[in-house]
Amino acid sequence: MDFVIKTIFCGGLARNFYFVFKLYSIKTNEMELLHKKLAYTLGGYFYDVHNALGMGYDEESYHLALEERLKMSNISFQTKVQKSIEHRGVKVHKFIADLIIEDKIILELKNIATDFHQANYLQILSYLKNWQMDLGLLVNFGAPSVHFKRILFTEKETAFKENHTELEGLLSLSLRKNLTELRAAILTILELYGLGYGDAVYINLLQAELSYKEIPFTPQTIIPVKFGGKIIRQFELKIPVIDNSILCKVIALKNEIAPEINKMKTYLKDTNLPIGLLVHFGKEKLEIIGIRP
Fold first, then answer.
1. Domain spans of the chain, in order of start
2. What does residue 241 show for φ and ψ, rounded to 5 degrees?
3. Treating both helix axes as pointing N-terminal to C-terminal, what angle do 59-71 and 36-53 enclose, rounded to 10 degrees?
4. Which of 1, 9, 209, 253 could form a disulfide with 196 if both were Cys (CB 3.0 to 4.6 A apart)?
5. Confidence grade of residue 74 (pLDDT, cut at 50, 70, 90)
6. For 64-83, what is the mean pLDDT?
7. How many CB atoms lie under 10 A from the CB of residue 268?
8. CATH 3.90.320 matches 2-154
9. What average pLDDT does this structure show over 157-179?
10. pLDDT tens by residue, 90-102
11. Residue in 116, 117, 136 with CA at minimum distance from that of residue 126
């Protein structure tokens, strides 16, 4: 999966824009100019809406105003479009795209005082992947000047890397069996769905696959938090435990995974589980890392 993020601020008179670009990966000129005319027209509509309403309304108000502006044009659109991922007969996640323009561009509207958050990028990338579209626009109506970012998406061949060095000498026959079954379930998810979704999607997909293959697991566990020899609270750890032996944490699209490894070591120590598996559905590859306490 490759993607590019560009920042576009709308200022001055309607349709008189100035551009500031953030490039997160190198793309061809053809990809960078994808749906250029339509995106430019939409940028004018975003400015029209913001100019008419000003700041201070909720996201739904800007959404409805943008719908009205689109109705004044000859641009076709769908609003609040829903689509689900179903795995092994189980609906594991539902997406709701704010607007889909001419079956070419997905719009995700925000009303926030800050710049876009990482979760916003992951959200629209998941939409683009699920609808198999190549361009999305993140639009923020919460700033003094409306601004939006172009998100480009292309599906890429998946790569796979695993490292079980830390598990050497720890694997009994039963642990090895559980690890082999868990690894097979993870690779099935990679084969069927590839890379590009967020954490929640892959967590639900893996749990549905584990249930289908009748691999026993608990979706969460309770850890007593201790200080000075005293239990000060009960912490609900929302990470599945496979057959009471393997703590398996699934993450996605992270820039850095070292902090997640350190957290896993803490959880393993405090749950007395023998081994853990960190599964990262990253931007370029799937990583499976064996972890010991």
1. 2-154, 159-291
2. -115, 125
3. 120
4. 1
5. confident
6. 96
7. 18
8. yes
9. 93
10. 999 999 999 999 9
11. 136
